[in-house]
């Protein structure tokens, strides 16, 4: 019979995607305490079937397959960008296929906006409307609101329209980071990916005798078994060493090793491998937070999985990486650099984001120091002056100049030009790390 914890998880999984879930309602429906309901809902969140959103509540979401881990739900996007839902709450469980930064003309923007995408845009009501009609959700940057009819349209289409105080560059960086964090997690092998599930595990129960070990041993040809109580909680492990020379009528709990080492489904393969070698064990029970047996993992399982892993997960390209790839040395002057302003670098107004400007200045300064063979740069203090806004597709010229460079510290003055006009300045105080 399933435990109360398992019954609650099964109840949550039976709910329609998008359903709201509350501790009080679950406790009432299943006749359990609110504490039990709360712990089970937290477990449901850990396994990816519900999501809790500030000012919205807890909702049932679609469990992502591991191969589609890079797809975020709109509910997750809200948490990432500290957003507020303006409309379309019924669509929070849906996943986005891609995001589009709306720092371009309306007709160009719509060419890239399609069903299942997320349009990141500022206070452009017509863009909000057209995106929703195309089947795309909308993320409004800069803390702006939208018109009431747009909110009603979002409710009708069941597509979220979200507001965040961050600018487009920061939002895109945050979403990029979240996607790549999830991709890394997808590549990490966990115990739950390779363990033998409960239904295929041989075990003994409290109250059985040593003679029962021989029966299970003959049937399964294994020699190590977990010992469970009436609630299927692991209370011990019994091996051939434990029963050698013992009376066959001896209760199994008298022969077993109590408080065995256990692992959980989300434990990493690397940790289990280290633990098995360090502790000298061959088999470990896999349990949930209540110590209920969920499966078992052996040293052979770990070795096979380690042989299949070809390489460690790699971090994908973030917007910081895009900035680094955009900054290039001038063909004729080695202490001068160029960078083109692309859509991902702009704010909600379609001009160069302050965050990107700082990244460009830092990257150019770092390259200058490397050229002078001074070492790597770690910025300790930076003062930035914006003189003129910089439009999308502008080609910037960055001229860093070393004012003073000692063995440990450097002061760098940076001027940034667009079409030979000064658009920004910066003064960096940086620490030099000898390569």
TrEMBL record:
What Pfam families does the record point to? 4HBT, CBS, DRTGG
Key words, A-Z = CBS domain
Question: Does the record bear Flavoprotein in its keywords?
Answer: no
Recorded superkingdom: Bacteria
Instruction: Provide the CBS domain boundaries.
Output: 195-254, 256-314
Q: Would you tell me the protein name for this molecule?
A: Thioesterase
